[in-house]
Amino acid sequence: MKVKVILFAAAAIVVAALATSCGTGKTQAWYDYKSKVVGTELDGSYTIQAWGRARNAADAYVQASKQAVYDVIFTEIQFVSGQAPSSSGVLKPLIYEVNARQKYEDFFNAFFADGGEYKKYSSMKEKRDFSTRYQKTDSQTTARVNVCVFRSKLRQRLIDEGIIK
Known about the structure:
By secondary structure, the protein is of the alpha+beta class. Helix content is about 35%, strand content about 20%.
């Protein structure tokens, strides 16, 4: 009787170990990542490390590019440690107005559409080896991409459109 109990307990441990080891690392693609400023240039552009999620890698890279421009416009972005030119350590958003995305919804929907105007203010030409990473699950791909965002040109465009003063 003791032998059967020991064999049953051992089998239960093996089944539990196999069940918990399946699919490890798959949940990381669902984590909500934040963009970071990796570098600055003298022409008013910033290199942003952005994340994109989509059904394949190509769409995830496009989504990361949109996310980098979106973050420069609407959110405060942290600098990678030791890279901040200011004492605050953050890149301030271009628009401080509350609910500006909803107020100027027609403009921003067209601006961020596939093939939209956001492409004029971002570039992945400065991509270096090992600067792009992606992780794939059954349903989506998460990509980390370094995107150069031309913040000064973007700011001027928003001034021309009357969105900021």
